[in-house]
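Encoded backbone
================
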Amino acid sequence: MLLHVDGLTVAFGGVTAVNGLSFDVHEGEVISVIGPNGAGKTSAFNCITGFYKPTAGRILFDDVDITGKRPALIAARGVARTFQNLRLFGELSVLDNVRAGMHVRIRQNAFDAILHTPRYRRSEQEATDEANRWLDFVGSRGNRAAEVRNLPYGEQRRVEIARALAREPKMLLLDEPAAGLNHGEKAALLDLLRRISDLGTAVVLIEHDMGLVMDVSERIVVLNYGKEIADGTPEQIRSDPAVIEAYLGSDDAEAQQEAERVAHSSDTGGFHDLPTPEEER
């Protein structure tokens, strides 16, 4: 077991964003955390990566308690993350953005950097070569010397994932990686997620595209109003009445029957066509 979340609770004043969440992630596993608006998905991610301190509960990563630790310490242990809103360095080149992701692994001597010693130059070349390898891995085909802000949105997404992978994480958390992508880009993302898993890296994603979620996930954790309401395989989640009700807000038999029809539709692949509002931050 790589990640163990036990009784995670996050409260802001009188509002409980996450309420007693517990789940595990294993090496190389792909799981999705889904739920309707206000479910607490991003708050849970923020606790796992150190951006929020939990009100209660424990988070163990690779058998080490990381509850409430600083983001840099958690990243150094092998946790990498992307955000729904891109956090790239717009004025830096594509290559330099990916190289920036290696700072948690590469140790350089200030003396070597000032004097540009052979050891420093060798280290810089190795970082450049590795950055190029990760850009190749994610399918980036653009000008790597170009400022990243000038790239199309889908290409910027690839760069952000490459930067996260350049840290060589044991676990990668992706917050809505398919947001803003077209159909072809989503298909490429699906393939990329599987290849990341093949590396032995666990993948945990928040995603509103249920077609992608059902296709790529080995397990799905469902939140509603901060509470976990389901944890199972895509097949189990697709037909779970509590999940269907959480998404559709059904309160009568007719609405429930319609939800069941949509959930089992072979054309939609589950909830693929349901409206999914942006999660609050």
Observations:
- The domain at 3-42+54-64+84-168+180-245 is CATH 3.40.50.300 (Rossmann fold).
